[in-house]
What we know:
By secondary structure, chain A is an all-alpha fold.
Amino acid sequence: MIKRRRAPATHAARTAALFLGALTAAALLASVLMPDAAATLDLSYRRAAPSLSHWFGTDELGRDVFVRVLNGARVSLAIGLLSALLSAALGTAIGVTAGYARRWIDDVLMRFTDAMLSVPRLPLLMIAAAILQPGVPLLVLMVGAVGWMETARVVRAEVQSIATRDFVTAARGIGASPARVVWRHVLPGVVPTVSVATTLAVGRGILLESALSFFGVGVQPPTASWGNMLYQAQTTMMTEPWLALFPGAFIFLTVLACNSVSARRDAGPRPVLAHTGRRTQLERITPLS
Amino acid sequence: MSSRSRSLMTRALALACVVACASDRRPAPPSNDLLIVGYDREPDNLNRYATHILEDIESCVVEGLVTNDERMQLVPLLATEIPTLENGGVKLRPDGGMDVTWKLRPGVKWHDGVPHTSADVKFTADAILKGDWKPESVDGFDRISSVETPDSLTAVVHYKEIYAPYALQFVRGTLPKHVLEGRDIDRANDYNRSPLGTGPYRVAEWKTGEHILLERVPGYWRDTSEPHIRRILFRFIANTTTRINQLKTGEVHVVAMVPWDKVRELRAVPGLRLNQVLGNGYEHVTLNQKRFPPFADVRVRQALAHAIDRDLIARTILDSLVQVVNGPVQPLSWAYEPNVRAYEFAPEKSRALLAQAGWIPGPGGVRTKNGRPLSFTLITQAGFAIRENVAQALQRQLRDVGVDMQVRLIDGTSISSVWFAGDFDAMLHWWQSGADPEITLFFAKDRTPPAGRNINYFADDALTALLYASDRTVDQATRAGLLREAQRRVAELEPEIPLYNTTKIDAVPATLRGFKGNPTNAGPFWNIQEWEIVK
Amino acid sequence: MGDREVAVSALRFIARRVVQSVPLLFVISLLVFALIHAAPGGPLALYLDNPNVRPEDIARLRHAMGLDRSLPEQYLAWLAAFVRGDWGYSYADGRPVLSRIIERIPATLELVGTSTLVALAVSLATGIAASVHRGVDRAATLATIAGISLPVFWFGLMLQIVFANTLGWFPSSGRASFGATGFADRVAHLILPAAVLASVHAAAWSRYLRTAMGEALRRAYVRAARARGLRESSVILGHALPNALAPFITVVLLDASIMVSGAVVTESVFAWPGVGSLFTESLAKRDYTVLMALLLCGSAAVIVLNLVADLVVRAIDPRVRESS
């Protein structure tokens, strides 16, 4: 197994982790205290600027934007986290299978991975979302289903290199079943790689959701998500900027926090296993431009 | 390397400043040389019969025999008068059919110099009847048995049966026989992308994805009002925010049909005038009785109507831009009946009606009857901010009387097939009608999809009889009487909940004279030859 | 290996990859076709909203468009025509699909080309500077993490508000003012969208290059070069950079290929008349034929540039050639 020295958490990474924790707690708390955003709807108190009674102001329907941002956090975080976990699971499963199994299985899986990597991700998701008109659970599946390919490739490379190590060949030699070898000896080795990929994927999932909502095919109101709050705020950006400012800032800060945490996890010297720089593959982030 | 990149960046910044300053980013104001229109979509084609978007651009090029003015009055254009029973233009035949005689304006020429004649009228009807291409609709044309042309300026249209909206038959103009005869019109892209017309403008350029440029045609037949503006540019800007931004920066001068939630922002922009006319459509809540049977009880429908504070919604979400209405025929129509039953905001009445109908408060404040909750889903179009907001306000107001309504948004293209299949409980939407007040399509009991648009699945024999009688009446006064009675009956039975009229607001330069707007789908460009920029 | 052998091996490599990509494209086309036709609505939905269009009209149009045939039939007909180069006609405006796509390509190339070059320059500079200087590294890390965390449409709208609406320096959107033929006008229109595209990609790429450089700098031969007392600049530029360059170029080419198939978000925000806007317009109109062709072209672009990237890497880095 690879021994890693844990890099000391930087100040920024600690702040980021703290921010994510606080946000998650607040979002969960809000869903208990204020399960229904419509409850604050008040047509006689619309478009109020931020004040002490409404920290983030009120929207077109007189709803409290702070409450909506927290409700939106629930949806955005859920999509980001769950889709990232799904991607991690899919990517690890496919990567381990491809790296450890026979040649032809490897070939088939990698060709499939290539096919998925060749289709432009955002357009594909836009078509799928336009057609399926997904709710939050389906959206998690969709975002997760287009995000596993990089992980699969990296995990495969790592598994292939681990599989030739002495302790793995030794385990095989004494007759351990393939499943046991993978579970006991191979999987622990890919955990660091996968966890980095997963924290990055959380941010990407949040951005994907907001981009889909920007085109009106993401999470649909009345359910609040940061993406659809921004989408709706476009209309009033010049007159009530706070409606756009807060959800936008929260997307930015949350993705920033995810990426900062992953930067910490990835810090420190590591052995380089493949000539193309296996580790650098993880740093490849395709912006949704 | 890093210092080199720094100097590179400095240079790039410097270039940006030079470009920004040198090109003087204040765009040219509107002038009689060039008027720029920010248009929300690129047309599919410019053939008025084949396009399925609004005919704004076409109406500058191809003229109808008649058109609608800003008060929705029918005015003759290429015809010298509107045929009626009184002036002898319409004759009822003993066999139940009718003959309509169109007299064409003499001296009108197509842009290529060929005279516009009754042969073009006949060719148009024949081509659409032949059906070997894709006209958007053949409505009315399929009731024509033949067209006769006794002379070059007279076309007699023989109908197999009485067709009340006959006067609008050629509102989309005529097809030029000498260009299109014997051709596959679907593939006649020379015509479909640059139609030959008789109007004040012709298509000078269509740059796909960017714009269509129209230029003035010399020697326009209406010599009294030669067009003042030389060129009109339609720029395609699909994103509403972008379109409005360009209006504010002066990159475009005119935006037709400004979304209501953008009006507030434009009020403060100097040099702009917001022109407002009543629309010929109405926003309403369709109640699908087939899918959600409790709507079949008139007391439930009336209770829902009383639970909704339409004035509050119009005053707040719609910024008082729209007028609350009580029925499907709009105030501009000659058949409009103002004295119908109106359902004021009265939650108490609403609760009483629901209780009468057997719906009693149940768990969670939702009323139930025989263990079934009064709970349904309202669908409406996604990406339409005002509808999303109105839907949520309705949800809140209905909850106050114990009705549970969920909101589901569906995108603009899918929603059509959803309602066509009747797969919804309730829907928030509008109908934009033509200038003719026919509402048979929406309320006759046998006109449920696919035979029509009665998606309330509402069936009332008396109303159905009234509507069909009005369709078979050519005399306008008699027909208006029948339609007025129909409107009173609709309001009494409240098969759907009308909310407000779809006001049309166009943003134009304050210096533009002659702009009047238009309530119908003909669009605000119908009188473009009168437009003029005055300094 | 001799030159001839290298060429032969490169050709065999290309041939194998081309052969592999055919079933890939076939699978993609099948997936996309199935997905698109699962859609409710379809191109005829546009007609339903018009009260004057009657059911008979719909049935007539459905038949005229061939939409009344079974799905496998429709797919085979489409595939047969597509392979022959007949991409069909757009449901939306009746013109050939191929010409609709081709006319959008120059605008996209202009935008993507400019922003790729800018992003390349910026990321090279910051990537290298960051691997040299610790202070620069901290700042660059912060900036690049911020850059990749920005929601692009939001960033674009913000730039419009500041630079077009408030300051009035640049036009808010579009590719050119009407009637203006000058170079300055084109550049002024290009700056904001290119800035958006360039900044998000520069952030991603410089972060990538920084990591690759960091790895290269830890290698034995770099340490050896340092031990030999070489100047730091020649260690960086002469030894570390060439090694970091191969994976970097791969990534740049792949991202560029995805952008070519449509910088969907940026083009939409800035009303840029390129391939990306064509995609969003066609999606809104359910223009099946155009959507299919666009997604396939996009996938093909990715496959081709993937191949180019691999060839470039083979040329730069001999170890790859030997191992494959």
